[in-house]
Amino acid sequence: MARAGLTADRLTTAAAELADEVGFENVSLSALARHFGVKDASLYSHVRNLQDLRTRVALLAGGEMIDRIAAAVAGRAGKDALAAFADAYREYALRHPGRYAATQIRVDQALVADSPAMRRTAEITYGMLRAYDLEEPDLTDAVRLLRSTFHGYCALESTGAFGAPRDVRESWDRAVDALHVALVNWPRYGHDR
Hints:
Radius of gyration: 19 Å
Distance between the termini: 59 Å
Structural class: mainly alpha
Number of helices: 9
Strand content: under 5%
Shape: globular
């Protein structure tokens, strides 16, 4: 019998905390069961399997991250919004490495469509990009550029891979400036390519 008070939400939150401590890839149902002092089988009445738990952590972390980003960009536009977005993204990624890693997994598109946090992520991101007067498919391309740049930078920074003596924050700010210039001067090739 499952321990009283154990819920899918409590398990998800505990898994997110564990991910920040030991790494998202090291979160297991066994480790979570040990954390709560129950047998592994007790968890299956709350989560279907490890993939279900990981998806729940991804959705939780995605919601937390977009809440921080939304607060940062509120009332801002253009370069100011881009910088605020980027800084909130970086801060979350560095402060919550396990949760952040969860946001990078592929989640079933049906779950994404049903997730208010994931819809909000698209709204905030595309809203921030409105100042750059981009239309599809350029919007999708711009989102991919931002995500890959932010993710790559944060992944390298979190492992200490930037070895040059230049201040990492200064380089980050320059990268955001360069992204702003790229967005302002986005190549308009048309949609027939």
